[in-house]
Amino acid sequence: MIGLIIVSHSKMLADGLLQLAEQMQNKQNCQIITAAGVDDEAHPIGTDAVKVMEAIEALSEASSIILLMDLGSALLSAETALDLIDPVLAEKVHLCSAPLVEGTIAITAAASGGASIDTILAEARQALQAKQQQLNDNVTVTPKKEIEHNSFSEAAIKTHWVVRNPAGLHIRPAAKLASQLSSFKARLELHNGQKQADAKSMNQIALLQVKKGDKITLIAEGSDSQAAIAAFEQLAQQNFGDDVNSTSHTILIGKAAYIPTVTGLAYHWTPSIELIESSHQGSKNEITKATQAFEQLKSQLNTLADTLTEQYGKSIADIFRGHSLLLDDDDIIGSVKQKIENEEITAYAAILAIFNEMSEQYQQLDDAYLQARFIDIDDLKKQLLMSISSQTAKTLTLAEPTIILSDNLGPSELVRNQNTMIAGIALAKGSPYSHTSIIAAKMGIPMLVNLGENIINIPDHIKITLSTEDSSLTIN
What we know:
It contains 18 helices and 14 strands. With 476 residues, the protein is an alpha/beta fold. It has four domains: 2-135, Rossmann fold (3-Layer(aba) Sandwich), CATH 3.40.50; 157-241, HPr-like (Histidine-containing Protein, Chain: A, 2-Layer Sandwich), CATH 3.30.1340.10; 277-389, Enzyme I, Chain A, domain 2, CATH 1.10.274; 402-475, 3-Layer(bba) Sandwich (Glucose Oxidase, domain 1). The strands form three sheets. The protein has a six-stranded mixed sheet. It has a four-stranded parallel sheet with strand order 2-1-3-4, sandwiched between helices. A four-stranded antiparallel sheet has the order 5-8-6-7. Helix 17 links the parallel strand 10 and strand 11. The radius of gyration is 27 Å and the shape is globular. GO terms for molecular function: phosphoenolpyruvate-glycerone phosphotransferase activity.
C-alpha cells in the first residue's frame, strides 16, 4: 500500500483535493491523508511540521509514503517533519516536486492500480505534460519507456472503441482506464490516430487528447492480453466511468431586464501616492525591512479577507487570502533578500525589481485569465512599497454619483474605497478577467476596461455616461 500526504497551507484546499482524488482511489492500494492549515481560527493559512509528522506516523504501515507540498513553507514543514520522526520510517518517505493538483491525481491513479513507487513518482513528475501540450507550451514531453510501436508480434490482439464521453478521455476516465489496466502483465498500448501511449499511464493517455467521436485502439500482447482486452471493453461500455447522459442541459433564452447604463461626474483618480526611496542602511537592516513589510501585509490581507467574507462572500475573500499565500512563497522573499545582498540595494529597490519582473512574466502569458494576474502583482508591489515607505494609501471622498477614471486599478485599491457614490469605473488598461473586474461585478459597479489613453483627456467634473451594453463611455 502506498501512502500519500497532501501538505498545503489551506485545509479547505487540501480537503477539496482529497475529495477529487477519492473519485479514483482504490483504498486497498492507496491511502491519502491531509496535513494542512494551522490551528488558528483567525488566521488558519499556514503549515505545521507536527501535523505532517503525525500524518507520516499514521501511514507507517505503508510500503512507501509520498509527501506532496503546495509551496514555500510547506516544503520546510515537510523537511522538518522528517527530522522529527524515526529514521527507519523516514527512509520510506519521498518528497515529490510534482504540482499539487495534477500530482495528487497522478499518484492516486497510479498507486490505486498497484504501480511501483518509481513508476508512481515518474507519473507525478510528468503530470503537467498533458496540460502543457494542450496549451502549446514549449515543453519537452518525456519519451515513453522503450516503446517501439511496430514491434508487436502476430500474437498481439487489438480492439477498437469510438469514444462517447462528451469531454473525451479527460482526467477521471483516463485515470480509471490506467488504474484498470495497470494490474495486467501484458504490454498494452493505446492508439488515437497517429498518437500512441502506454495504456497503463494516466499521463500518457491524457497526452493522446482523445475527444468525443475519436476511434481509439488498444493493442495487447502477453500472457493475459485477452483478459486485458476484456477489461478494457467492459470499462469502455461503461464510458470509462462517466455518465454520458448527465451532461445534457436545458437552455432557456430570454432578454435582459436591465442593462447597466450609468451617468455621473468624471473623476480622475490616481490611487498610488508618490513614494520616496530612503537611503541604504546596510543589507541586514534592508532585509529586516523587507521581511517586516511582507509579514505586515500578509496580516492586513488576512484581516481584510475576514471582513470581506461577511460583506461579499468567500469567493471574494479568497482573492485576498490568495494574495497572502503568494507573499508566503519562500522563493519570492528569498529573491528579494538575495537581491538586497548581492546588489547592496534597498528593500524598496529590491521589491520594485522582483515584482516588476513577476508582473512582466504574467503579461507575456498567452492565457488571458493568467495574464490578468499581473494586476494583482502590481497591487501587492504598491502595498509593499507603501509599507516600506511608512505611507498610507489615499481614499476617495465623493459627494455625488461619480464615474472613476484611472489608468488601472488593483483589487485592494477597489475594496479600500467602497463608496455608494461610485456609479461606475472606466480604465485605460485593466482586463475583463482581472480580480478587480470580478470584485466590481460583485459590488454591482458597472466597469469598462481597455478604453485606451484617451480617457486622460476627459475633463474632471464633466457629466459622462458609461454603458456596458455597447462598452461605451460618452461625454454628455
